[in-house]
Specification:
Number of strands: 17
Low-confidence stretches: none
Largest sheet: 7 strands, mixed
Helix content: 25-40%
CATH superfamily of the largest domain: Medium-chain alcohol dehydrogenases, catalytic domain
Number of domains: 2
CATH class of the largest domain: Alpha Beta
CATH topology of the largest domain: Quinone Oxidoreductase, Chain A, domain 1
Distance between the termini: 5 Å
Shape: globular
Mean pLDDT: 95
Length: 345
């Protein structure tokens, strides 16, 4: 079957790999991949900046799939079901898993990062990682994982209705954070360097205010928007060391700084400035199974519209020629979707 492999940074090639056997083992499923979302993890891997990553690798963890066959004991999905995929393969035994945090399992394997993912038409997956929907299309299902990252980060922050929140980075993960921060009743300020992305935040997400980080002192702009207080919660979804360093200046005294973006670098801060304000720093990694279920329900109920997010599309065979352009902000990419036609399996 046609498969895309990221051989080394910047080198994405089309090749042929064996199609999985039609009979999955107990507890497993054979699935047909219809849609794959392209996210910051994929772009960072392409650029050679993704932590926990080795080459060569088949990318792709934001998947909209169809169940083709099920193994013995599978009861949560049936042949023909359309599903979102929870791409976090956890052990179920370590202390994180035992405490209900499989998203940070000690031996976590994420599809498309630590183990090969979905840039191909068929793959064997554990049935427990499939989240079905009777009404959602494959585009919508492929975006559930991105939304889950934002939902989990907002849950980590324990936002309160009415508090001022800044979200740095208006890519898909930042947009997901904004979406769920608004759902908690927060006053959301989007921070980015792209005027077009900031316009998207205003027009499509409905944020309360925007800050152009290239137009002057970000902290001063945030102070002006919060009556001199600064935001009580600041999310950094950039994956940029420079941005993450600067973010320590943005929370109000007693506030929280939540790092959603992941970067292959050390992040330092000035301790007296940090202690004086008694800041809380939180990391946020992946999402929980319950968040997938919740997000599917919200999309089904029409409370989240994923359609405006998708700005670029390509068939699987076209992706090697187009992927480089998706790494460039000037192309206006919010979310690219890969379509896998029926004739590539």
């Amino acid at each position: 079957m046609l498969t895309l492999v990221l051989e080394t940074p910047g080198k994405l090639i089309a090749t042929d790999t064996p199609t999985p056997a039609i009979a999955p083992a107990a507890g497993e499923t054979l699935v047909r991949i219809h849609r794959v979302g392209v996210c910051g993890t994929d772009l960072h891997a392409y650029a050679g900046r993704q932590p926990f990553f080795t080459y060569p690798r088949i990318l792709g963890h934001e998947l909209g799939i169809e169940v083709l066959a099920v193994g013995a004991g599978v009861t949560n999905v049936s042949v023909g079901d359309r599903c979102a995929v929870e791409p976090y393969l956890n052990c179920g035994r370590c202390i994180a898993c035992r405490q209900g945090k499989p998203n940070c399992c000690r031996t976590l394997q994420v599809l498309g990062v630590h183990t090969d993912g979905g840039h191909r038409s068929r793959i064997i997956l554990p049935a427990a990682k499939l989240h079905p929907s009777k009404t959602l299309g494959y585009d919508q299902l492929a975006l559930v994982e991105t939304l889950g990252i934002g939902a989990h980060a907002v849950g980590r922050a324990q936002l309160r209705a009415g508090e001022s929140v800044a979200v740095i980075g208006a890519g898909p993960i930042g947009l997901a954070v904004m979406q769920f921060a608004k759902a908690e009743g927060a006053r959301v300020i989007a921070v980015d360097i792209s005027p077009s992305r900031l316009a998207f935040c205003r027009d499509r997400i409905g944020v309360d205010a925007t800050v152009n980080a290239s137009a002057g002192d970000v902290a001063a702009q945030l102070e002006a928007l919060t009556g001199g207080d600064l935001p009580t919660a600041v999310f950094d979804a950039t994956g940029s060391p420079k941005s993450m360093h600067a973010a320590f200046d943005y929370p109000a005294p007693g506030g929280r700084l939540i790092f959603v973006g992941l970067v292959q670098a050390d992040i330092a801060f000035h301790d007296p400035h940090f202690h004086r304000r008694e800041l809380t720093i939180l990391s946020s990694r992946n999402a929980l199974p319950t968040e997938f279920t919740r997000i599917i329900r919200l999309i089904e109920e029409g409370k989240i519209d994923t359609a405006p997010w998708i700005t670029h599309r390509a068939a699987l065979a076209e992706v090697p020629a187009k992927f480089e352009s998706w790494t460039k902000p000037e192309t206006g990419v919010i979310k690219a979707i890969i379509e896998i036609p029926d004739d590539v399996g």
